[in-house]
Specification:
The complex is a heterodimer of chains A (about 230) and B (about 350).
Chain A (H helix, E strand, L loop, with lengths): L1 H24 E10 L2 E2 L5 E3 L5 E18 L4 E3 L3 E5 L7 E5 L5 E8 L3 H4 L23 E8 L9 E7 L9 E5 L6 E5 H7 L7 E2 L4 H11 L2 E2 L2
Parallel strand pairs in A: 1-12, 10-13
Antiparallel strand pairs in A: 1-2, 1-7, 3-4, 4-5, 4-6, 4-8, 4-9, 8-11, 9-10, 12-14
Chain B lengths: L1 H23 L26 H11 L12 H4 L52 H5 L8 H9 L2 H11 L6 H12 L8 H6 L7 H13 L14 E2 L15 H4 L8 E2 L21 H10 L19 H11 L5 H4 L10
Antiparallel strand pairs in B: 1-2
The chains are: A alpha+beta (about 230), B mainly alpha (about 350).
Amino acid sequence: MIKFVFSFLMCFLSFHSVVAQKEKDSTFLQLNLKFGSQPLQLNKTYISKKNDTLQVSVLKFYISNLQFDYSDNSFASSRSYHLVDAENPKSLRIPIENNNKMITTIQFQIGIDSTASVSGALAGDLDPANGMYWAWQSGYINTKIEGTSPSCKTRKNQFQFHIGGYKKPNYAMRNCILHPNTNLEITVDIAELFSNINLQQTNSVMIPGIKAMELADYCLTMFKIE
Amino acid sequence: MKLKKRKGVIVGFIILISLSFTKRLTTPVYFEVPTNWPQPHYDFKNNPLTEEGFQLGRHLFYDPILSRDNTISCASCHLQATGFTHVDHDLSHGIEGKIGTRNSLALMNLAWTKDFMWDGGVNHLDVQPLAPMTSSVEMDEKLDNIVAKLQKQEKYQLLFEKAFRTKKITGQLTLKALSQFLVQLKTSNSKYDKVMRNEDKFSNSEQKGYDLFKANCASCHKEPLFTSDTFENNGLALDATLNDVGRMKITGNPNDYQKFKVPTLRNIQFTFPYMHDGRFKTLTEVVKHYNSGIDKSKTLSRDLLKPMNLSDNDRVDLVAFLKTLSDTEFLFDPRFAYPKE
């Protein structure tokens, strides 16, 4: 009995040290939010390629199921969900395991898969309290971009894009594949989205559908390595 | 070394004892499936029922703290004595007297329900409360704000700790607690159920009504839940003041035009008015609609193409049968009532 308790305690302690080790060995995937060549600042005025003057007030999106290919042909993947929020600098650094191998490819999804979308109330970054869950029509908002532009003849010149949908044919999650530099930095260039849309015509997309699918394609082009 | 070992033993025992103690802090609840009923759709593995979770959910259900100005609770539109729905109003009303676009649904046997709302827009019981919480004409509140309000109250810190062993309130736990209450709103003890269990007998009129029901209604209002949990167009002429396209709003599919959830008929005697827009006040009107008021359109349920041709007596018998679906034990069960402090 004494032996058992002792070994139980040893297990417990060694588990603790493993956790501590892991924390020490983790590194980060850094997301750099930009508008063209400039760093993106919320509520700052930018001009898009379509000549729309605009300010972004909300930018939130999900990065999920990160997968890494290494130079030694091995790979690692995990079911994971990260809510990135331009207002929260901490969320721009996604912790990943540092195993001293060279990453050749990073793969992830922009948005939430259909399985998680039908699993009821989830925790952490998937908690519906984060404001990224639709109420009258279930499902996650993959990407939320809101702001103002004089081009929008809407109330208070607002534009609102809530891009999501988990049911075919309007499954708006997008798969992103990138080949990183050694510094593991990913650029998210919002200007790419606005170079594809004319804010006078497209300024409110709030439900799953063809328009959301189009915007999801444009969002994919925002992610790149510089 | 020996001393260290002994210390380790003591610490180990303390850990073991406290572990066994924490387990005993919640009381598991067994969800009984009535004989000859299908297996529930709700996955209890992801939200194991406990008495403490149920009680927390019950407090939340009856608390107007869920609304923006702390005036509207779930129970405002879902009253127990009337099958957890809002009677007397064709369209339900919420915050600041604002009026919605649909008649509130009765809440019962939700463990067997796959899709929620009249249009099936909600895919899981856990996330169903988000709809009334955030609707601008119902509670007009946000989940993160509700969580912050709950966190400030000592009462809820305690209730959450009892139910989930944490004082940190989250959106997930709030929704799971509500589910624990909602999923236990089970009604299976009406006269109909007793007759099926050979504990009671139908009157002549009720029996005739039951036979008519099986011939004319049961394809959609399937026993024993009295719903097929599908969406149908039941021949209601479009109300131009609402222009409600029903399920098509969710699917975008023209074949779903004016299709609505097939609601359960249990406790229907008390859940008036009827239909998604509450257009019928009495069961007699409802039966009359199906007998001779069907509005034929492209998406009309195939089962309603053939006229029912019921006589006046038949219609009386059918209503008599529908009243055997009332379960007063459920409607007055103190377990589901407003919680006393």
